[in-house]
Amino acid sequence: MTTNAQEFDRARGAMPGGVNSPVRAFGSVAETPRFFVSASGPYVTDVEGREYVDLVGSWGPAILGHAHPAVVTAVQDAAARGLGFGASTPGETELAELIAARVTRPPLVERARNERDETPRAGLETHPVERVRLVSTGTEATMTAIRLARGATGRDLVVKFAGHYHGHSDGLLAEAGSGVATLAMPGSAGVPAAIAAQTLVIPYNDLDAVREVFAARGDEIAAVIVEAAPANMGIVPPAHGFNAALADIAHAHGALLILDEVLTGFRVGPAGWYGIDPVPFAPDLITFGKVVGGGLPLAAIGGPAALMELLAPLGPVYQAGTLSGNPLAVAAGRATLDHLDAAAYERIDTAAATVAEATTAALHEAGVTHVLQRSGNLFSIQFAAEPPIDYDTVKAQEAFRYPPFFRAMLAQGVSLPPSVFEAWFVSASHDDTAVSRIVDALPAAARAAAEA
Ligand code: PMP
């Protein structure tokens, strides 16, 4: 049997930093990264044979728990029929139909009657996904959505928000969240200045900044891209009506709204954040990833037929992929969506609420200044006195309290995201036993955060 430290040493001789994705190196929490060999339900097991309750969930996909039997069987059955054909399969159509059918919200008229503060909005589309294209990663999904928006509008500029992460394509790394935030990088080397100049970065939750950028350059802007509910600088919920106002401003200037639901899609509810935002709004393109692939590499772009059919082979916007719509990934995605019923969401919501409340209670007890930020069943802790609303306020928190908190949880067998800039992922498999193990570990971790 090897140790995590031995594995890390060896990995560093084979891969840059010993990893294939930066945050996995555990750099910001100053701990030896764990090398996992197996996982089941809410648990992961490392090379040393230690089991942890997992709150990373493969960064989102493991929403039913690891190695869910129905998902594993679906993948095994698909594998036995062939690993991929480089040609179309009926399963791809079924997954596309499933995505389109799920991403909906009740008709506006009905909602307006029930929720008084909602003003009806012209053009609200309750089925925003008519056509779907399957790709392999969230990065490809947002990259393609942007190319599509540029192709549709004949414009070049894209507006993004500081602290939002949309994958690692050249134009989207400026002031990005997730690993870019964890490593405190302003962007990335290797991105040509001419490409970076096509992205206008503005502060989140600031409609004045949105109005200003559109007033200045509105007729050059192809799209604004936004995380539906940001989760890559920790959780920072959108201000009430923010997404709706964003859609209105973009549309008033002939630009598109790209709603990035790679992380929130099918997680915060069957229709993602689109389905639960208290103020309905009309995105033009939506990107999905993580949950929709059930743990295998699969992501998607969805939107109305008129826009989506600008993609090749029908239209002039090119996009392709050797492994796009891979049958194993499609099978995992379909099995996962099939098992995400109302009962599953209830289990996720309940477990998330219990863990979130126990965490804030333990930190409070230890006298640690913090806020619990939530967007549906997604949550994270931020070491600030007031809830951060944008990247600047997120960065101003006492982030140094997180590493000792993280290490104390890990030592007690709980695997948290190795960065304060990430969401905590609870799954439908987090039962009372798993939740109690987390809750029991919290007081010692909270004391470690207090002493930092
Ligand atoms: N968009 C969002 C909102 C994400 O959270 C992520 C990944 N964390 C991506 C895009 C990129 O997805 P991928 O890592 O699959 O390329």
TrEMBL record:
Which keywords are on file for this protein?
Cytoplasm, Isomerase, Porphyrin biosynthesis, Pyridoxal phosphate
The root-end lineage is: Bacteria, Bacillati, Actinomycetota, Actinomycetes, Micrococcales
Query: Where does it reside?
Result: Cytoplasm
Cofactor names from the entry are:
pyridoxal 5'-phosphate
Q: Which residues form a coiled coil?
A: none
Query: Does the record bear Repeat in its keywords?
Result: no
Report the protein name in the record: Glutamate-1-semialdehyde 2,1-aminomutase
Q: In the Enzyme Commission scheme, what number(s) does this protein have?
A: 5.4.3.8
Q: Which HAMAP family match?
A: HemL_aminotrans_3
Coarsely, its chief localization is: cytoplasm
